[in-house]
Design goal:
The chain has 167 residues and is mainly α. The protein has eight helices and no strands. The longest helix is centred in the first third of the chain and has 28 residues, at 37-64.
């Protein structure tokens, strides 16, 4: 049980993505069914959980537990941790606002973190190649989530955009 809890916490971006989808399916099951209802339920809870909760935890880890966060990534602690933490807090705030917000706000809530995550994925690859940094926070599930989370966000934006066009 301890190893399962450690896995969930250590891979919080995956955990919050799954939680968002579970919450979305529950919300869909409890809501009136109309065109786009499933996409709306899943997108809203993706914003809430995969972006909002995940980036709020990222803020806490990088600001209040800098040494732990840096070690997990395979880095030394630096003032950069605080900067990443406050950027994460900003992403979380926008994601929380976009949870039930209009489409243009959702575009911003997905776009900012997606640019950050895809850039981080590139940085992880660079670190793997040049520094042979294969720490779990650099080359593990976090690396893959840095690619998957933006792709899912862009897919939701596309689906909602197409839905808006047809209605």
């Amino acid at each position: 049980m301890a190893s399962v809890i450690k896995f969930i916490i250590s891979n919080y971006s995956l955990s919050f993505l799954i939680l968002g989808f579970v919450l979305g399916l529950i919300a869909y099951a409890r809501s009136p069914k109309g065109p786009g209802a499933l996409t709306e339920a899943l997108f809203a809870t993706y914003l809430l959980s995969a972006l909002g909760f995940s980036y709020l935890l990222n803020f806490v880890m990088h600001v209040f537990f800098q040494e732990t966060a840096a070690a997990y990534i395979g880095w030394q602690p630096s003032p950069f941790e605080t900067e990443v933490g406050f950027a994460s807090l900003g992403f979380a705030a926008v994601a929380f606002l976009a949870f039930k917000g209009p489409y243009p706000l959702r575009v911003g809530a997905v776009l900012g973190p997606s640019i950050f995550l895809l850039g981080a994925a590139g940085g992880h690859v660079y670190q793997m190649i040049t520094a042979h940094n294969f720490a779990p926070g650099n080359a593990g599930i976090i690396f893959w989530m840095d690619i998957i989370v933006p792709l899912i966000g862009f897919a939701f934006l596309y689906l909602q955009r197409e839905r808006r066009r047809s209605s």
